[in-house]
Amino acid sequence: MKRRWLPKHVSTFRDRHGKAHYRYRRTGFVTYYFKNEPGTEAFLAELRACNDGVSAPEIEVGANRAAVGTFDDLLSRYYRSPDFLDPGERTRVVYRGTLERWRSRTRKGRRYGEIMVRELQPRHVEAMLAELLPHRTSANMLRKRLSALMKFAMRIGMAGTNPVIVTRPFKVSGGGFHSWTEEEIAAYERRHPIGTVARLAFDLMIWTGQRGGDARKMGPASVHDTRLELTQEKTKVFVSLPIMPGLAESILATPTVGAFFVVTEFGKQFSVKGFGNKFRQWCDEAGLPNCSAHGLRKAAARRFAEAGCSNQEIKAWTGHTTDSEVARYTAAADQRTLSDTAADKLLANLAERLAKDAAKALKLGENK
């Protein structure tokens, strides 16, 4: 019997020119045609998106009979557009979940997916968001996704305006993920010493400021001379970072299995969700229930801010593209440390100015 070399649900066929193509076919799900060759990292990302139901969603009975001009019709187009497909795999799962929960809701016996796109008005959006209260974060997430959806609708001629942009998001207290304090960082390091996988995973994030989804993909191939280089999974931003001494020590002290620095107990690469769950376990073992992988990224940005680094310098590490994004991540920077740094800079500037004035006065005296 011929051994199957392609993953489950993946088959190959040749076009009329004899060129091989690959497709994902699974009963009850939409067929997906791969853009990349099997064995490549890009192909594996496409395969994961298919298995997660993102690129190859479950077929809905009657979905192809959606009335033209409805949100059901718009969403079917949106899910096949670059607007939806360009973000990372995990991001697409979150976006799709938000939109699917919204379109399945009903009001006065009418499902939101059945509403005509051109009928949507700001007052309707306000009412839809209010339905999610008191969960303000969820309401704001829906508002963002509806706004992106309506921008796409305008571009393809299904809407003339975007009624979402005139609405206002809800004010949310708190700063999102908890940013690790130095005491919490020290507690984790005490529980997980250098040489353990738990510590290496931690060091890959605290010393680079990268997301957990990117840390799980780092390996020997990411190292170029004395730098760590990668393209961020979520934003596709390329970063090249010097390997700090603390990270170098951790990498050298931890045995590497295969192509990645951090792997499962079976020697396999972590999935995004699997890495998050495992890091959650490592944090709990260290007695840190409020800490998370993403909060560690915030802590790395905080450290840079407390060291007096500029926004441009911080963005070069974290991969953020706007100052507002950096501001959210450095909000936990210690105010006393920053004020002391500012004072040192002010005194240094004043001293330099006084030295220049003294030199100028001395020169004038000599000329007389």
UniProtKB/TrEMBL annotation:
Keywords: DNA integration, DNA recombination, DNA-binding. Residues 175-343 form the Tyr recombinase domain. It holds the Pfam family Phage_integrase. It comes from the Bacteria. Residues 69-154 form the Core-binding (CB) domain. Transmembrane segments: none annotated. The keyword DNA-binding applies. This is Tyrosine-type recombinase/integrase.
